[in-house]
Amino acid sequence: MELRVSRTREPRGLRLSGEVDASNAAHLGRALATETGRGGDVTLDLASVAFLDSTGLEHLIRAARNLEGRGRLILVSPQQPIRRLFELVLLDRRSNVEIRKGPPDRGDGPPDRGKIDTPALRAIDGSSLRYRVVRTARPNSVEESAALQGIEIGQLLRTIVVRRGADDYVFVLVPGGRQIDWPKLRAHLGVNRLSLPDQDEARAATGYERGAITPFGSIRAWPVLADAAVAGLETVAIGGGGRGINLHLSPADLLAHLGAGVADVTRPAAAG
Fold it and tell me: How many whole angstroms separate alpha carbon 214 and alpha carbon 207?
């Protein structure tokens, strides 16, 4: 992963871009130690940071401690998943830490995403699709994924590959908290039988491992069907072709770009 750190004079501090993880966090730590050693307020511009893991977070916490009684650590424009991480560890509750929101993301194109590269992102680069790449740690549940991305569970879209015949598949976009209603789906597609491919078959049909499947960049452009609940959402998150890589965009833009059909084909997921 690539991290770029540059010093700023007004306000005094650092501007970061790229991704912060164990491979490069020491670089950030050294830069922070230099700035905090002088005392006074230190500002970090995080607008172009796509990912920050626990090692990077430790350096921020250490910087705040170094400034106690001597200045503030001001964190500017962290993306929503990173802001959520700050809240989870109560970094925003420290007396000398201030988190400032930057101007709202207009979603008018891809951000600087450092070295993130997937077939999905390559497929939409240069297109007119408006989206935002949001990278998080690999979640262990739907609930954790939504929390890390700063959205509701119902805004998460799972891409499910359904077999409707020999070498014939369809992508079904299912909002979080819902599951496919098989009688509805069979009736809509006009078939008597549907099934789910196993992991190897799904990879052969899409090029993706299960858990990272998305219509974007699939090796075959299978038809896409979105549940009717998708159209009523303000923003949705769909897989970006890798675990922990997500695209945030409007449902209208998503459906138009994919040429997706829309139908009532799901029901609330069973409890437990």
Answer: 10
Contacts of 267 (CB under 8 A, 6+ apart): 178, 179, 181, 184
Counts for the chain of helices (H) and strands (E), in that order: 8, 14
What is the gyration radius of the CA atoms in the chain, in angstroms?
21
Question: pLDDT digits over 223-236, tens only?
Answer: 999 999 999 999 99
How confident is the prediction for the chain on average, in pLDDT? Answer: 89
Give CATH superfamily name and number for 3-100.
STAS domain (3.30.750.24)
| Bridging pattern class, strands 236-239 and 224-227 | unpaired
What are the backbone angles phi and psi of residue 176, rounded to the nearest 5°?
-60, 145
Per-residue pLDDT of 70-83, as tens digits, reads 999 999 989 888 98
- Which letter, b or e, does each residue of 158-172 get, where b requires 16 or more Cβ atoms within 10 Å of its Cβ? bbbbbbbeeeebbbb
Q: How many CA atoms lie within 13 A of 234 on its CB side?
A: 3
* Domain spans in the chain, listed from the N-terminal domain onward: 3-100, 119-268
Architecture of domain 119-268: Alpha-Beta Complex (3.90)
Q: Provide mean pLDDT across the span 262-269.
A: 96
Q: pLDDT for 234-247, tens place per residue?
A: 999 999 998 888 99
